[in-house]
Predict the structure.
Amino acid sequence: MTSPLPSSVLDLAPIVPVVVIDDAADAVPLARALVAGGLPAIEVTLRTPAAFDAMRAIAGEVPDAVVGAGTVITPGQVAEAVDAGARFLVSPGWTDGLLEAMRASGVPFLPGVSTASEVVALLERGVREMKFFPAQAAGGTAYLKSLAGPLPQARFCPTGGIGPDTAPEYLALPNVGCVGGSWMLPADAVADGDWARIERLARAAAGLSADVTCR
């Protein structure tokens, strides 16, 4: 049995692994390692031909995982991702057409922003939860702190350039619900099928969120 459909991407987990899968055969053991390490929300990016098959495999064989689709940039990808089992959607940016498709999909979504004007435009359209991307390059924690004053109703999942040293700084911000990152998925570990190492790194990442919430 899978868990109920989430109402908010930001409340799935403090850390969301951002996963690039080249071989769909890696999807299930990778997802199991992340879940065992305490990271059940898994964003599979649509950057490789294997992405949809990978999501389908995770959705079908790892019931404790909440699999989502990242790098969603067209309305067609929205439909295909949901059909493959995606339970949330994440985009690096947005257009009105993409936003309409994500809203119509019936699953929670995070359109991407990197400026105050983009945040205001989404708030005007009734969207309060967003991806902040590319987080470090777009101003990092200082920028998000600046947005919290005039735009307190907006909440974010910062992604892009975040690692274990900076993730706690983001999670401590009042307008951040979770952060996305790939530091717990080193390329050599994935290539070698070293799922035990990925589980250890996932557990350490999950511990970062615990450190923040206990402050």
